[in-house]
Design brief:
alpha/beta, Rossmann fold, 8-stranded mixed β-sheet, 4-stranded mixed β-sheet, 12 helices, 20% strand
Length: 354
């Protein structure tokens, strides 16, 4: 077992698990041997875990003296009681550090829900990813551009993440502050297990409020477009300008979608999103279509043309029902902003993103 000496010559034993950039792991409570940490819910696949034995605050403080880093605190529960909050103790070890506290994850969160633990830590460790508690859900997001520039929020489609917007965001960042969140059940955000278009709408609402983005331009692809126009119906004035990219207008599907079969292997999204939203696509609430006239934001709908699986005639009906809307077709199929980014950017910039 390797041992190193602290600044005050105190010997500290440690274990190494995995490969990659080192990540220091400290055991908690009365446990002195760090082996119980294991691979921390799969984190060892991405980082080399350096697990210290004997988490003695004084000895560890001496070993890590002067180190100022962001610190993630995952405070869970056991037997219905909250675990001791280590924030105060860790603050003494890491002066000036930033703390993110996630509660309700269980006393050993990497064992109770390894995926949730790994996503929370991965988001925290990625310098390009930020997180916010929005409506009780932890949402990960990426941001580009100057903070004072006009805000644009990019909403991904089903089974995607904010990363799908990178090409578009990098271009818009020249003159906009661009935000691309991961919806619940997707990417590095929380995966609560139950989903609906209304829940995704509420994610957008909570995100805009949490980041103080009222009046922002909101761009939504497919599922993200549904969430965006549902919010524009319910909260007129919250969205400054609305851009809907080949989103289903929520007419009943004919024929309806059959039950979906989960593909094998690891997914970057929660599979429950698919059956939950397929139910709504097959038999949507007709009130949604009746409320199109309640959308007051200037609206651009971009259709993917005849090769898209979205009914383009229904998209045209949506545009006619929204008071201040226009339709542009980019013959690219459903994935317009990824297949034809130049044409997509030209369309949204001509709409007013200048």
């Amino acid at each position: 077992m390797p041992i190193f000496s602290a600044h005050d010559t105190t010997p500290l034993a440690y274990h190494l698990v995995g490969e990659g950039e080192p990540l220091i792991c400290l055991p908690g409570g009365p446990m002195r041997a760090s082996e119980y940490l294991g691979d921390l819910g799969g984190l060892a696949a991405r980082r080399q875990l350096v697990s210290l034995d004997a988490f003695d605050p004084a000895a560890t403080a001496a070993a890590l003296r002067g180190l100022t880093v962001p610190v993630l605190v995952l405070a869970g529960e056991y037997d219905g009681h909250p675990s001791p909050d280590r924030a105060t103790e860790l603050a003494a070890l890491f002066p000036g550090a930033e703390f993110v506290v996630q509660r309700g994850a269980g006393h050993f969160p990497w064992l109770g829900d390894p995926g949730a633990f790994a996503r929370a830590v991965e988001a925290f460790l990625d310098p390009d990813v930020r997180t916010v508690q929005a409506g009780g859900v932890r949402l990960a997001y990426r941001v580009w551009g100057e903070e004072a520039a006009p805000p644009v929020v990019l909403l991904h489609g089903r089974a995607g993440s904010g990363e799908t917007w990178t090409r578009i965001a990098e271009d818009l960042a020249a003159d906009h502050r661009v935000y691309a969140p991961d919806f619940r059940g997707h990417g590095l955000s929380d995966w609560p297990g139950r989903y609906s278009f209304e829940m995704f709408r509420d994610d957008v609402h909570a995100f805009l409020e949490a980041r103080n983005l009222a009046g922002a331009t909101v761009v939504g692809h497919s599922m993200g477009g549904v969430a965006a126009y549902l919010l524009a119906q319910r909260e007129p004035g919250l969205i400054g300008r609305l851009i809907v990219e080949d989103a289903p207008p929520l007419h009943p599907l004919d024929p309806p979608r059959p039950p979906s079969v989960r593909p094998e292997g690891t997914l970057d999204f929660d599979w429950s999103v698919v059956p939950d939203t397929d139910v709504q696509l097959n038999d949507p609430d007709p009130a949604v279509r009746r409320r199109y006239p309640e959308i007051t934001a200037p609206t651009l709908v971009i259709g993917g043309g005849p090769t898209s699986h979205i009914d383009q005639g229904h998209l045209a009906q949506m545009v006619r029902a929204i008071p201040d809307a226009q339709l542009v077709t980019v013959d690219a199929g459903h994935l317009i902003h990824t297949e034809r980014p130049t044409e997509f950017l030209a369309a949204i910039r001509s709409f007013g993103l200048v």
